[in-house]
Amino acid sequence: MSSTGRAGRPKASSRETLAEAACELFLERGYDSTSVADITQRAGVSRSSFFNYFSSKSDVLWSGLDARIAGSADALADLGGRADGNAVGAVLREVLRDFAPDPLALALRNRTAMGLDEELIRDTGARQARLAAAIAGAAVAAGIGVIRADILGAARAAALFSSLRVWAEQGAGRVTPDAVLDEALRDMDDLRWG
Predict the structure, then answer these.
(1) Helices (DSSP H) in 111-191: which residue ranges?
(2) What residues contact 175, with CB distance under 8 A and at least 6 apart?
(3) Upper half-sphere CA count for residue 185 (Cβ side, 13 Å)
(4) Helix-helix angle 177-186:146-170, to 10 degrees
(5) pLDDT tens, position by position, 133-181
């Protein structure tokens, strides 16, 4: 049977359809008042289809960035003793390079209307801490002391998340998030790597 003869939505678009339905509902009802069942009903897919793509309602917002952070953690670990400010900055730029407007960008721009203020603070904090730890690990591997490494990791992770938020709030079409990050990293001159 051809793919056009199957019932339901095409598999390639289900993830995007679910994310779009979720964002619509978050704007209409608020995050807390929207259930996974509401999202699947709006998207016209089954509950099991939702969980094929997302582990939770929150994952709709974060899954794209989470994959990028996981990749950056691997890249930072691969730097080993070669880690320096420029190499780490290049890894962080890759996290935000070609970051298209997505559910997270929409949530950051409309967090109050979606009822996401507390959710974003909590979820951003967990992800920022994960990225900070990976950056600090790269700094330690390069011979930097633990306290300075922790500070460098926290500052650079904060710069990435702040850049993403500012980019989304300003309107995603104006400038790229990696360009905003470049500016943030330049502003960190008092926190030199070495």
Answers:
(1) 117-141, 146-170, 177-186
(2) 167
(3) 21
(4) 140
(5) 999 999 999 999 999 999 999 999 999 999 999 999 887 677 899 999 9
